[in-house]
Amino acid sequence: MPPCSTVILGTGSYAPERVLTNAELSRMVDTSDEWIVTRSGIRERRIAAANESTSDMGVQAARRALADAKLTAADIDLLVVATVTPDLQMPAAACFIQQKLGLPGAAACFDVNAACSGFIYALDTACAMLSSGRYRRALVVGVEKLSSIVDWKDRTTCVLFGDGAGAVVVGTTDQPDVGLIGTRLGMISDSVDLLCIPNGGSNAPATPASIAAGSHFLKMKGKEVFKLAVRGMDEAARDILEHHHLRADQIALVIPHQANLRIIEAISQYLELPMERFFVNVDRYGNTSAASIPIALDEARRGGRIKAGDLTLLVAFGAGLTYGSALIRW
Ligand code: ACO
Q1: What digits encode the pLDDT tens for the residues 280-291?
Q2: For this structure, is 158 an active site residue?
Q3: Atom of ligand 1 nearest to the CA of 115
């Protein structure tokens, strides 16, 4: 069977109700609205309720994506969830989402962990599985409850992250030149320790001492990550454009991972593409890791920023340091 094109049939997103502003954060740690806005562009972020799980948020986004695609759970035979904050370490968050959504028992369900690049990795995986002809329709969810792995006493990280979920429904089409045109995935070697959770994995199980030291929380060397993030995103964007013989100015809208406004501005300068061509919502959500691109994609579509025939470039980087890009024609 020849490979077929994969196309996004619907998008959805979900943000928890609770808004945590910079002003509130400045009463929790030694920081200020001015510092956070100047260094990151973030003004507020959403925080999940204590009893609201990663899968609960993923289900909300998935339901909205299914409604947008005018499909039901019964139409889905593949669920891929990108997350670094699953409900439990085992089983996968996808298993909880499958159960809560009522997907058919025969649907394949698994998680992908590529941190903030996770959604692009998951989308590529789902599209490859659909192109094989062995699956018909996929739900791809990017969801995070980062508030559960952030050290709320560490001002260098806690101001940057937030919770949320985004989802897309993917199917196949015979129409040429629409849908996922290509992807580029990669990783910058020797950078695993720049952004990680030191304890709690199989290499260093949590102990009373490690918990007391807070080493089961996310740790980041922000300055180094910043430099490599700009390099990784620029390379991922350039490579995919070159591979498809496209110029940057042919892209109608770039949907970058929303980590820091200054990183997005640097990419805009490197690609010589004005900021108007970049979708930005980092001011309202902060960095939601794997959820950041699908939330932005859903907001861009619903806000009329994406029209039929447009070329959209998704580009991300994350812990690893992984990076990825994807080109979509609508
Ligand atoms: N409030 C006030 N001061 C602060 C804060 C804060 N919240 N955080 C740090 N500072 C201080 C530092 O202690 C330092 O003080 P010093 O000069 O006395 O030592 C000063 O501010 C400058 O700190 P820098 O780290 O040099 O600030 P920088 O301009 O690099 O900005 C930031 C920091 C925002 C973290 C930036 O480096 C960044 O965005 N890095 C990339 C992070 C990122 O994108 N991570 C996501 C990866 S994706 C994933 O997989 C999760």
Answers
A1: 999 999 999 999
A2: no
A3: 50
Which CATH number fits the domain 6-172, given the four candidates 3.40.50.2300, 3.40.50.12500, 3.40.30.10, 3.40.47.10? 3.40.47.10
Using a 6 Å cutoff on CB, does residue 26 contact ligand 1? no
User: Chain-centre distance of CA 315, in angstroms?
Assistant: 10
Rounded to 5 degrees, φ, ψ at 151 are: -85, 105
Is a pLDDT exceeding 80 seen at residue 1?
A: no
Ligand 1: distance of its center to the CA of 193 in Å? 16
How far is 150 from 205, CA to CA, in rounded Å? 18
CA of 258 to the centre of ligand 1 (A): 15
Whether the pLDDT of residue 266 is over 60: the answer is yes
Buried b / exposed e along 140-167 (16+ C-beta atoms within 10 A): bbbbbbbbbbbbeeebebbbbbbbbbbb
Measured CA to CA, the distance from residue 78 to residue 139 in angstroms comes to 6
Contact 95, 84 (CB under 8 A): no
Asked if residue 91 has a cis previous peptide bond (ω within 30° of 0), the answer is yes
> Would you say the CB of residue 223 lies under 6 angstroms from ligand 1?
yes
Annotation says 257 is catalytic: yes
Residue intervals of the chain classified under CATH 3.40.47.10 are 6-172, 179-329
Amino acid symbol at 250: Q
**Fold of the CATH domain 179-329:** Peroxisomal Thiolase; Chain A, domain 1 (3.40.47)
- What CA–CA distance (Å, rounded) separates 122 from 183? 11
Q: Quick one: which atom of ligand 1 is closest to the CA of 218?
A: 51
C-alpha 118 to ligand 1 mean position (Å): 23
Q: Is 322 exposed, middle or buried (CB count within 10 Å of its CB: 0-12, 13-18, 19+)?
A: buried
Per-residue pLDDT of 86-133, as tens digits, reads: 999 999 999 999 999 999 888 999 999 999 999 999 999 999 999 999
- Ligand 1 mean position, distance from CA 82 (Å): 26
Active-site residue, from 95, 109, 116, 127: 116
